[in-house]
């Protein structure tokens, strides 16, 4: 029960990494508020899974790219659950596309969701944590793509590098308030964001073969690291970036 008595807010919490993190945070004792933009039924399933664990939960539908969505999400969580102890910035998109003919709208939408959305949401959560005066923890889901390139991800990798950098700067800006800021950098995790890219069995096998642990990741692989960084076990960890990639980054030979 590492998060007993805490309230956790997670963006993009209806599926993938956000869903797994939300349920594991509840399993660790937290009440959870999720933001989502997709299917209402998926969000309701997450809320049901959390309440089945004996914790409170709400789902708020909004687009993180809208600056007004951030304070509204935080206010809804405070009204329903009483406060904000942990914030997980997870919402993101990656519409794979070649660089030379990248549509302006695809680039701008990716930037607005992944980077601007993270900024606004983290800022709103941090403002509430400062008002509460009891510190807190902020975790951003960056990516191995913050460290390496991708041919069809020229719009995506800069946003994930930005999220990683945002956590480093926020660790400095918010440390005096007792707020810790860290990022997790997942490798290839099987989620809706890359299901089309991984649809080819040969490509999946080739990618898995490059990973020292011998398999692609699943959302639940990120849940444990997020719970750890959210908990008091990581009370002296801030400005850090935790690779969760099965060893893919170090496998250069």
Can you summarize this structure?
InterPro entries: NAD(P)-bd_dom_sf (IPR036291), SDR_fam (IPR002347). The chain is an alpha/beta fold and 253 residues long. The chain has helices at 16-27, 40-52, 69-81, 104-132, 157-174, 201-209, 220-230, and strands at residues 7-10, 31-36, 57-61, 86-89, 136-141, 179-186, 241-244.
Explain this structure to me?
By secondary structure, the protein is of the alpha/beta class. Helices cover 42% and strands 15% of the residues. The chain has helices spanning 16-27, 40-52, 69-81, 104-132, 157-174, 201-209, 220-230, and strands spanning 7-10, 31-36, 57-61, 86-89, 136-141, 179-186, 241-244. The protein has a seven-stranded parallel beta sheet, sandwiched between helices.
Number of domains: 1
Helix content: 40-55%
Strand order of the largest sheet: 3-2-1-4-5-6-7
Number of helices: 7
Q: Tell me which CATH architecture applies here.
A: 3-Layer(aba) Sandwich
| CATH class bucket | Alpha Beta
List the secondary-structure elements in sequence, H or E.
EHEHEHEHEHEHHE
Based on secondary structure, the structural category is alpha/beta
Round the mean pLDDT to the nearest integer and report it. 96
User: What is the CA-based Rg, rounded?
Assistant: 17 Å
């Amino acid at each position: 029960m590492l998060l007993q008595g805490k309230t956790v807010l997670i963006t993009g919490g209806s599926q993938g990494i956000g869903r797994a993190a939300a349920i594991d945070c509840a399993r660790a004792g937290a009440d959870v508020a999720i933001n989502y933009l997709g299917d209402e039924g998926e969000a309701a399933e997450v809320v049901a899974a959390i309440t089945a664990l004996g914790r409170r939960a709400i789902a708020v539908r909004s687009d993180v790219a809208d600056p007004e969505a951030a304070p509204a999400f935080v206010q809804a969580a405070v009204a329903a659950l009483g406060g904000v102890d942990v914030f997980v910035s997870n919402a993101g998109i990656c519409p794979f596309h070649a660089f030379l003919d990248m549509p302006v709208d695809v680039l701008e939408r990716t930037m607005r969701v992944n980077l601007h959305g993270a900024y606004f949401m983290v800022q709103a959560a941090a403002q509430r944590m400062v008002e509460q005066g009891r510190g807190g923890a902020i975790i951003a889901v960056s990516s191995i793509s913050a460290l390496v390139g991708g041919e069809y991800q020229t719009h995506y990798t800069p946003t994930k590098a930005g999220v990683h950098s945002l956590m480093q700067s926020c660790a400095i800006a918010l440390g005096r308030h007792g707020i810790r800021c860290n990022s997790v950098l997942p490798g290839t995790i099987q989620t809706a964001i890359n299901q089309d890219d991984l649809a080819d069995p040969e490509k999946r096998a080739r990618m898995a073969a490059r990973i020292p642990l011998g398999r692609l990741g699943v959302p639940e692989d990120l849940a444990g690291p997020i719970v750890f960084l959210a908990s008091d076990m990581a009370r002296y960890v801030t400005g850090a970036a935790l690779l969760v990639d099965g060893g893919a980054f170090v496998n250069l030979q």
